[in-house]
Amino acid sequence: MTERPAYLSATADAYDAVVAPYVELAQGALAQVPLDRAVLAAFADSVRADGAGTVAEVGCGPGYTTAHLRDLGLDAFGVDLSPAMIDHARAAHPDLHFEVGSMDALDVADGELSGILSWYSLIHVPPAELPPYFTEFRRVLAPGGHLLLGFFESEGGPTAMFDHKVTPAYRWPIDDLAALARKADFVEVGRMLREPQEEERFRRGNLLMRRQ
After folding, report:
1. What is the pLDDT at residue 96?
2. Which regions in the chain score pLDDT beneath 70?
3. Which of 45, 67, 139, 164 has the fewest CB atoms within 10 Å around its CB?
4. Angle formed by the axes of helices 6-16 and 19-26, nearest 10°
5. Contact partners, residue 203, CB within 8 Å, separation at least 6
6. What is the pTM of this model?
7. How far apart are the C-alpha atoms of 34 and 132, rounded to whole Å?
8. Per-residue b/e over 96-111, b at no fewer than 16 CB within 10 Å?
9. Could you tell me which of 31, 35, 96 has the C-alpha nearest to residue 62?
10. What is the Cα–Cα distance from 178 to 175, expressed in whole angstroms?
């Protein structure tokens, strides 16, 4: 068995330790950000237009965004490194499936998924470790399947670590992240940048990609 990289163990432990305050912060967050809801709706529309197969939210945390995908008409399930977050997600959304796992080694057959949502979860992956994640996303997505990324954008600077409230994370130039996805055989469908709202520190980025 391959030993889990230290950054994955550190991320899981950090989120296990903050379930209650994180849940309080995350619950209802989408209601405050119409642009985020619009991007998620566009992702859901794209998946439904191609037959509405199964969608995974990778790095689902307490499951609120997975439930939002369900409310948008998708057959969605969630995966997260943190057992404590998965316990909360299962209790809060007993009608949905959640499992503990890592998004670089999903327990999903080749080509099984119609969509993947990574909503501020790749942010904790060190840049040098990120390419295999896109390779894994390509493996589990059917040809033509959809990938939506949510991340902190670097606002003209290079990829850089910052002091995320839970555990260290990275801000990415949107062009650089799109280029990494292209190397894994994804094509860009669209992108969005939004400026930080009150009490947010950084610009937010979204990339909607399609597997070739």
Report:
1. 98
2. 1-2
3. 45
4. 80
5. 152, 153, 155, 193, 194, 195, 196
6. 0.96
7. 32
8. bebeebbbbebebeee
9. 96
10. 5
Pairing of strands 97-100, 75-80: parallel
pLDDT tens digits, residue range 134-176? 999 999 999 999 999 999 999 999 999 999 999 999 999 999 9
Contact 15, 167 (CB under 8 A): yes
What residue type is 181 in one-letter code?
A
- Cα–Cα dist 176/191, whole Å: 13
Q: Which amino acid is at 102?
A: S
- For residue 161, CA distances in Å to 18, 75, 124, 180 come to 20, 34, 9, 18
**How many other C-beta atoms are found inside a 10 Å radius of the C-beta of residue 142?**
17
Which amino acid, one-letter code, is at 159?
A: T
Give the integer Cα–Cα distance in Å for 172 and 205: 9
Domains and CATH numbers, the chain: 6-211 (3.40.50.150)
Nearest to 172 by CA among 136, 211, 118: 118
Query: Which residues share a beta bridge with 190?
Result: 208
Question: What is the Cα–Cα distance from 82 to 101, expressed in whole angstroms?
Answer: 8
* Residue matched to tokens 């995974």: 56
Q: Give the H or E element holding residue 67.
A: helix 64-71
